[in-house]
Every structure is written in structure tokens, then in C-alpha cells.
């Protein structure tokens, strides 16, 4: 549905997108994962025709991005785009008018989207009386009201408490189950892991790796992660490397990538010469993949 090929964008001499290439198929939730400044918002602004790339190709439904393709896209920006003194329904009415919905479709779509984001009972409440989580859900409703084919959610849970975050995740899962195509940008790895069919890891305006979680796992030289707490870290590293483990640090945690899964008994035998405060085996997660993939490109 969305095809992006060799997109480049620079602000003066600063290259922000460098041959950016990725596709999103219909019905897919694609996660664009990147740290602050990776180029996520710039990419979104180009997709929405708010910004022009210096060169490259970008199409939606095989049509080059233009004013005409705006109707295919719904965007929930990072900062809520809502009128605080207007009610939920009035906000949706305003945006539905911008998209040119007729009276009947508009009325119907306001009800449908308020129901989808679980705010029908707050239809007449002014936005300023809603919680932060509710406002974020309404911000997503604005993106849905004109029945777009592609919905862009730009860091939809940033700044929300965990309960509100769970509500947004549930909402995104529902939209996914309805077959909506979604581009989700986030720097929250567990968010991408939970919600996305495919993930692109973006750094300095380049996709460093892309695929489903299981495809990305194959890029990692390990089957399992071992987190070890010991007062004798140097000795632990020497022992581990002799056994073919790969040493990594995630924050202050001493961690090893194990090329093959081992029984805990076998692991304890390997480290039996040093004191161990704690040891835990974990499956490879997106967090580990992200660090592995981005570390060589810092
Ligand atoms: N109008 C601008 N003029 C100059 N530089 C800009 C402009 N907009 C963005 N940048 C720079 O381009 C880079 C990419 O920014 P962008 O906002 O696309 O990143 P992002 O991945 O969305 O980051 P964040 O998660 O912080 O929103 C950053 O280094 C940013 O400082």
C-alpha cells in the first residue's frame, strides 16, 4: 500500500533521511523504531505531504504522494491536535468537515469513531475535562474519522501512565484486528514488540534492519540471553568467552548471548569457580536486537 524508495532529506547540510526505503502492505502494522532524532517525524511529514523529500519515490495505492492522496491517510500526531474547549463530538465534526464528509456520513462516523475509542459516553464533554489517556484516544479518533486506508500513529503512548498506555495498546490491537493498515512510530521497544507485524529499525535516517520479530531475531548471534550478577565480573567474562558466549552490557547489566540454549544446571557448572549473586535466562527480545543492530552504527 505504501512504498518508500531511496528517500533523502536534508535540512541545510544535515542529512536527516538517507536512502530511506520500506514498504507497508495492506492490513499490516509496521513499527518504525528509532531514538529521538532518528527521522521518524520527518518521514511522517513527507508521507502526509507536509514536507517534500529532496529525492526518492513515495507512493500510496500506487499514486505519488500529493494533495490528492491526503484523504487516504489519517494522522495522530505526537502532540494532540485537539480544540480543548470543544467537545469530543465537536472536534470530530470539525475534522470531518475538513475531509469533506457529507452530513449523514459525518454523523455516522462520529458515532463509529467515538465507539471505537471508547468515548461515546463522553461525546459532549469538552476535551479539557478529559484525562490525558482519553485525550490521546480522541486524537486517534480524529485520525480515523474519514475512514483512511493508512493510519499513522506518531508515538501514541509517549507521556502516558501505564494504565492509559494499556488502553491505547488495546485500541491499536482492535484496529489491527479490523484490518486497518497502521504505521506506528515509537521508541518503546515493548510497544513495537506487542503490536507490530513488522518492524523497521531506523537510525540516522536509515533503516538498519527490518522484518518480523522472528526474522529480526535471526540477525542476532545468540539464541538466549543470560544476565549474571557477580562481584567477579572480569573472571565471569573470561569464563563465558571460553565457552563461546558473547559478552554484552545492557545498561549496567552484565549479559551474555548464548549461541545455543543451555540448561540452568549446565550454566551453573560453567560458572562454578566464581560467586554468583543472581543469574537469569531470558529469551531474545526486541531490546537485545535493537542494541545489537544499532551498536555498530553509533
Ligand atoms: N525543521 C528542521 N530544521 C532543521 N533540522 C530539523 C528540522 N526538523 C527536524 N530536524 C532534525 O532532523 C532530525 C530528525 O528529526 P525528526 O523529528 O524527524 O526525528 P524523530 O525520529 O521524529 O525524533 P523524535 O522522537 O524526537 O520526535 C533531528 O536531528 C532534528 O533535529
UniProtKB/TrEMBL annotation:
The keyword ATP-binding applies. Residues 2-229 form the ABC transporter domain. The keyword Iron does not apply. SMART domains: AAA. GO terms for molecular function: ATP binding. Keywords: ATP-binding, Nucleotide-binding. PANTHER family: LINEARMYCIN RESISTANCE ATP-BINDING PROTEIN LNRL. This is ABC transporter ATP-binding protein. It comes from Okeanomitos corallinicola TIOX110. The lineage of its organism: Bacteria, Bacillati, Cyanobacteriota, Cyanophyceae, Nostocales.
